[in-house]
Write a structure and sequence with these properties.
The chain is mainly α. It has one domain (7-101). Helices cover 83% and strands 0% of the residues. The chain has helices spanning 7-20, 23-36, 41-77, 82-101. The termini are far apart.
């Protein structure tokens, strides 16, 4: 029977995949390609900079996806948001003040 992954799990797996694509690995890959294709130093630097930029953009997009999926999962699970707790805390404070005045 196939397991169904919940969005939270998918977010964690995506985060783990991202960790495997660390900056060092991107730089190593770019250096290897630069060498194999006999690029000049300037071409190699530009290529590496482009790869790092694309890697960072992909990481940012992935972070956004993970955040949205996690928020959706928490909402479906009925987990209150921080703002909900803040509202309740304010109401409790207001009620305590009213009781203290009596």
């Amino acid at each position: 029977m196939a397991q169904h992954r919940i969005p939270f799990q998918e977010g964690l797996y995506a985060g783990l995949g991202l960790a495997l694509r660390a900056k060092d690995r991107v730089e190593e890959f770019a250096r290897r390609l630069t060498s194999e294709y006999e690029m000049s130093e300037e071409e190699g630097k530009k290529f590496m900079d482009d790869m790092l930029k694309q890697s960072e953009e992909a990481r940012t997009r992935l972070d956004d996806i993970i955040e949205k999926r996690l928020e959706a999962y928490l909402e479906r699970a009925g987990v209150p948001k921080k703002s909900d707790f803040d509202k309740l805390s304010k109401k409790i404070d207001d009620l305590e003040k009213k009781l203290a005045q009596k």
